[in-house]
From TrEMBL:
Domain MacB-like periplasmic core: start-end pairs: 20-217
Matching PANTHER family: ABC TRANSPORTER PERMEASE YTRF, MEMBRANE COMPONENT OF TRANSPORTER-RELATED
Membrane-topology annotation of the record: Multi-pass membrane protein
Domain ABC3 transporter permease C-terminal: 252-371, 693-811
Species this chain originates from: Kribbella koreensis
Transmembrane segments: 245-272, 293-323, 343-363, 391-411, 417-443, 477-496, 685-714, 735-762, 782-802
Localization per Swiss-Prot or TrEMBL: Cell membrane
Cross-referenced Pfam families: FtsX (PF02687), MacB_PCD (PF12704)
Name of protein: FtsX-like permease family protein
Length: 819
């Protein structure tokens, strides 16, 4: 049997390539997910560990603030060898070429003999009061060299001149690193400097739990104490939480890819067994037992699965290395992550791929054992849905569909993600279970038009597509899973994005607010701001100080005719009317009035009554410019409201705005543009991931559809030959198979998109319902869904090319003679 297995593998190598491709893609995707996650987690864990080397306990504020008295108590403990109280001062620095000063955090240098601290990549750490060390990246950005003097100033305006004596090694820092000065210098900058945290090293023989317990007893329960290992775990978790979530998402997609691959593998081995019917019958005739036939098929599956899974692991590791290299070009505030391979990320995908291949080959292997030595010389007809097993399967499928649908609705209404996911999985399994009934029915409905207009070949194609319901359903399932996955991802991202935009519009109705205090804006200010790339609209605002009762308040006036171009919330624009004052929540509380009340605002001799409307996100009190002129006719332009391009780089735009209007000394800039821009990038990355998943799913499904058509061509060799003998041309035969493949692809695309809409909306409701105030905004990404349908249709047509060529090459006379 060993020779038989090897010869069979060589003989059917071309056919097995299809199964290998599916396994390579599924295993490769799983390896990519696990390796990238393992590398990122290991890199961050190693970085945090180096930064906290020698730390046996950490104290940080909880209900109370860490004080100098707490530090003194810890130093007196007999278990303690070294104590470092991390303090810092927040200064302003005027960089060369910058219009306005920037903020700079300066940390106090401490003794690093027992606890790790900052190191320099060049120069030295500061030793004197007038010395400072800057992060290397910051120095490079502003072209600061060793020995250069820079001017620091406190927020109260007191200035200090310091010399740069060192550049800190920040290549492995997470986030932006602080500058470093001596403790005396930091104390001079900020006499009442805040203690960020306290790091403690233990005496020899003292365990970390014992040290943490002693510290807790000394400082009380108002502070939070970690062991050194616990602190590292805490810091790593804070950073890798998002990485874990992303790893889980990729892992889920990898499992789905393997499941789709199993369907393709099962169809592939079914084709191989159908082609080897005579061979197996002859083996049985010469004495091979059913057990030997079954074992030979599984042995072939094991070899194919092991080899293809190995290739998939190598493919996934290579993709991981490329992805990590590309990730270094993005400034995400994370240290460079090197490729890290562990046993789990290599052997788990290898094992899963091999086991999945073996399991997928079990049913075809059992079918191979039923080949009778003399009688089974043609492929066996597949069981139909009218059989006893088919009826049980359909009933079971409908029960799963109903139960899963109920759980899905409950998860959406109660905002329970786990319940929603369970409902989605159960209901989808139900859809797959009733596929042998549902898919042929949809094919008939969809094929009604081509059957009427496409002539005899089209009618035959429709009939062939529904001839074997179970195989058609299995083939469609491969593409259905991929389309459903991509559709729900796109719909979910679009809905979350729309909900986020609506929420942001309410919280930050204006992208950027720019104002000045007691300064005059230049006449060309609006043009200067509008010339900044990413700024689309600039609307001037006027302000004046007024009184309401005993309260002195600043009111802002804006022209309603232009306010709509910068205010994203249409409801606020509609409420901005004459006689109405838009007031934020804090000011309502300060004035002790309620939404809808009438307040009297006084400015000099002017006194005007306004109806109060609650409106957060704008100024404290917002009026129309006409109403403001009634109160303060001489109110000058003191700022602008800006709108930005949704695709603009928010942080870059904010940096340019901070350096704009050089004649203005102090410029106040605020708004939700950086946050909106960050999440827009996240959504774009997720959509990019969705496109990648579409490619993987389409490739695997394309292989599956092609395999099924190949089996169909094999079983219908005599039938196709008879059609050729009766006048069917080769182009008509190829067109017939193309229509058959296209119908299956379109059914999978239509059903998958419909399920994607339901799952995407339900998932958005479960995920976002408890996170936001107000209704969820559902979205239908029409262009993306149409693109998905077109890609699926093209994939179906491409899958028909090779089977159609194979069928068209067979001569009618030779095929009719086939027994």
């Amino acid at each position: 049997m060993r020779r038989s297995i090897l010869s069979s593998l060589r003989a059917h190598l071309g056919r097995l390539v299809a199964a290998c491709l599916a396994i390579v893609l599924g295993v490769g995707f799983g390896t990519l997910a696990m390796t990238a996650h393992s590398s990122a987690t290991h890199g961050i864990d190693e970085t945090i560990g180096k930064q906290n080397a020698g730390v046996d306990a950490v104290i940080q504020s909880d209900r109370e603030t860490v004080t100098a008295a707490d530090v003194a108590k810890v130093k007196q403990l007999p278990q303690v060898a070294s104590v470092v109280a991390e303090t810092s001062a927040y200064m302003q620095v005027q960089w060369a070429g910058q219009v306005r000063p920037d903020s700079l955090a300066v940390a106090a240098r401490y003794d690093t003999s027992k606890i790790a601290g900052p190191t320099t990549s060049s120069g030295k750490l500061p030793e004197a009061k007038n010395e400072i060390a800057l992060p290397a990246k910051l120095a490079d950005k502003y072209k600061i060299a060793l020995g250069q003097e820079i001017k620091l100033s406190t927020w109260q305006g007191k200035a200090y001149l310091v010399k740069v004596v060192g550049l800190l090694d920040d290549t492995t820092s997470i986030g932006s690193a602080n500058a470093v000065a001596t403790a005396a210098t930091v104390s001079t900058f900020e006499p009442q400097s805040y203690i960020n945290q306290v790091k403690v090293a233990a005496n020899p023989g003292v365990t970390q739990p014992a040290l943490a317990a002693a510290i807790t007893a000394a400082v009380g329960q108002g502070l939070e104490t970690f062991t050194g290992e616990g602190w590292i775990d805490h810091e790593v978790k804070q950073i890798t939480n998002g990485i874990d979530v992303l790893g889980g998402v990729f892992g889920m997609f990898a499992v789905i890819a393997l499941f789709v691959a199993c369907l393709v593998i099962g169809n592939t081995f079914t084709i191989v067994i159908a082609q080897r019917t005579r061979e197996m019958a002859l083996l049985r005739c010469v004495g091979a037992s059913r057990k030997q036939v079954f074992s030979s098929v599984l042995a072939e599956a094991t070899i194919v699965g092991l080899v293809a899974s190995g290739i998939g692991v190598v493919f996934g590791v290579a993709l991981s290395a490329i992805a990590l290299t590309l990730a270094r070009s993005f400034d995400w505030g994370l240290p460079p992550v090197d490729l890290h391979l562990d046993l789990a990320s290599v052997f788990i995908p290898l094992l899963l791929g091999t086991i999945a291949t073996i399991l997928a080959a079990v049913v075809p292997a059992r079918r191979a054992t039923r080949v009778a030595p003399l009688a089974a010389l043609r492929p066996e007809a597949a069981p139909v849905a009218k059989s006893k097993a088919g009826i049980v399967r359909l009933v079971f499928g409908f029960l799963l569909l109903a139960g899963g649908g109920a759980l899905l609705a409950q998860g959406a209404s109660s905002h329970q993600v786990i319940i929603g996911v369970a409902g989605g999985v159960i209901s989808f399994v139900g859809i797959l279970s009733i596929g042998s009934l549902l898919v042929p029915a949809l094919v008939k409905v969809l094929g009604a038009l081509p059957a009427r207009t496409g002539g005899v070949p089209a009618r035959i194609a429709v009939a062939n597509a529904v001839r074997n319901p179970r195989r058609t359903a299995a083939t469609t399932s491969a593409l259905l899973i991929g389309v459903t996955l991509i559709s729900l991802t796109c719909v979910g991202i679009a809905s979350v994005r729309k909900t986020f935009d609506v929420t942001m519009d309410k919280e930050y109705p204006v992208d950027v607010t720019m104002t000045v205090d007691n300064e005059k804006l230049p006449a060309t200010a609006a043009n200067q701001l509008k010339s900044i790339k990413g700024i689309t609209e600039v609307v001037p605002i006027r302000t004046a100080l007024v009184k309401s009762g005993q309260n002195t308040l600043e009111v802002t006036g804006v022209d309603p005719s232009t306010a709509g171009s910068v205010i994203h919330d249409p409801a606020l624009v509609k409420q901005l009317q004459s006689g109405t004052a838009l007031v934020d929540q804090n000011t309502l509380y300060e004035l002790n009035v309620k939404d809808g009340a009438v307040v009297t605002i006084v400015s000099g001799k002017q006194k005007v009554n306004f109806k109060v409307v609650k409106a957060n996100g704008l100024a404290r009190i917002t009026l129309t410019t006409a109403d403001l002129q009634k109160l303060a006719p001489t109110a000058a332009v003191t700022g602008y409201w800006l709108a930005s391009d949704p695709k603009a780089d928010g942080p870059k735009v904010m940096d340019e705005l901070k350096q704009s209007l050089p004649t203005v000394k102090n410029l106040n800039i605020s708004g939700g543009l950086p946050e909106r821009s960050f999440y827009t990038k996240v959504f774009d990355i997720l959509l990019l991931v969705a496109v990648g998943l579409l490619g993987v799913s389409v490739l695997i499904a394309l292989v599956g559809v092609g395999n099924t058509l190949s089996l169909s061509v094999l079983e219908r060799t005599r039938e196709n030959a008879l059609l050729r003998a009766m006048g069917l041309t080769r182009p008509q035969l190829r067109g017939m198979l193309a229509v058959e493949s296209l119908l299956m692809a379109l059914v999978a695309a239509g059903l998958g998109i419909a399920l994607g809409l339901i799952y995407g909306w339900s998932g958005t409701a479960a995920l976002m319902g408890g996170q936001i105030d107000g209704p969820i905004s559902y979205a239908v990404p029409g262009r993306l869904l149409i693109t998905i349908a077109l890609v699926a249709a093209v994939a179906g047509l491409l899958a028909s090319i090779l089977p159609a060529r194979r069928a068209a090459k067979v001569a009618p006379a030779g095929a009719l003679a086939t027994e």
